[in-house]
Amino acid sequence: MKLGLGKKLGLIHSVMIMPYQGFGNDKEVFFLGRVLRDRGIGISKLEDSRWLNFKKMYKRFMTWEIPNAEVQASFNGVTQVATTDEEGYFEFKIRFQEAIGKQNPWQQIRLELVSKVLKNQGEVVVCNEVFVPSEYVEFGVISDIDDTIVPTGATRLWEMIKTTFLGNAQTRVPFPGVSAFYQALSKGLVGRENNPFFYVSSSPWNLYDFLQELMEVHHLPKGPLMLRDIGLTREHFISGSHFEHKLVQIERIFSMIHDIPFILIGDSGQHDAEIYLQIIRDFPGRVKMIYIRDVAPAKHQKVLKTAEEIAKLGVELMLVTNTMEAAHHAASKGWILQEDITDVALKKQQDE
Q: Which end of the chain has less Cβ packing within 10 Å, N or C?
């Protein structure tokens, strides 16, 4: 009904496929995406005003979804079609008869909008990427975003609203030293960025392009973003609680990337420690380490109590107040190069 009204009033001039980077193994890949009216948001600039930032963020949330549209994915000789749901989302899980090569960890998938939504639509084609770990992977990293990478005040509603709607990817600055530490983890001891990163957050999919730009601007390792739908109907997007959403998404990653251990990074503001405890119970032997940024002093003791439960299962949880603590620990364990400690310290100083 909304789409029909928009077309009738001439409010929809072009449509777009918004692909969300995915992941998989040598036998199958998984990714999501969305078909929407082309919003024309563009790249942000440091000098953008608060009003311009607000208008762009408004466009991200006031979407015109394209339901019941067919999207075709072509990859590695396999063609598959998915239909968008009532909010424009589509999902692909593509399996292969023969294993795909692992030389390039980022694989390209062609997506085309098959359905004719507008009269003068033209060709709507985009390229999506999925991560398939190479043979050089030492471990993977799964990180939260809000109050783990960037301060957002996720535990304070008004502070979070101001931060989200009045800033942009250029002005949202990560915690000091985070980008250098994450780069060091990505390189590991091999010295090349082979270790995969996955970002799991309760932020809505509407912020996907914003968060991707933030990662690029601040030189955080490239990796799939697993966000949350703000609707209430789709089971496969898990739009329920923060705990349920993150647990399901991390378990999906563990199930598909099944032959490497993981370092989990989060914060004390919500329930990351308890979520990670459940992951260890569900996937014994798969978690190397847990780093929790201490952003909520009132929850300090609760996190330490959870850490005791985690220790009983043979995994260490470290509650850190700054990035250097985690970096020194990772170096002492032989997970990052000693010389990268200097880079983390220098970047932390610059950020501060």
A: N
| 8 Å CB contact between 348 and 177 | yes
Range of the domain at 149: 140-351
Residues 72, 179 share a domain:
no
HSE toward the beta carbon, residue 265, CA cutoff 13 A: 27
Q: Are residues 86 and 165 in the same domain?
A: no
Beta strands in 61-156 (DSSP E): 70-75, 78-83, 89-95, 106-113, 125-131, 140-143
User: What percent of the chain is predicted at pLDDT more than 90?
Assistant: 53
Cβ neighbours of 61 (radius 10 Å): 12
Residue pLDDT, tens place only, 119-173: 888 899 999 999 999 888 999 999 999 888 887 755 555 455 555 555 545 556 5
Q: Scanning the structure block, which residue is given the tokens 């998404």?
A: 249
Residue with tokens 């999207």: 71
The predicted-structure confidence for 25-81, as pLDDT tens digits, reads as follows: 988 999 999 998 877 666 665 655 665 656 666 666 767 789 999 999 999 889 999
Name the CA dihedral angle for 114, 227, 161, 40, rounded to a multiple of 10 degrees: -20
Looking at the whole model, is its pTM more than 0.85?
A: yes
**Whole-angstrom Cα distance, residue 327 to residue 132?**
26
d(CA 273, CA 145): 14
Q: What angle do CA 66, 23, 213 make, to 5 degrees?
A: 65
Q: Is 125 helix (H, G, I), strand (E, B) or coil?
A: strand
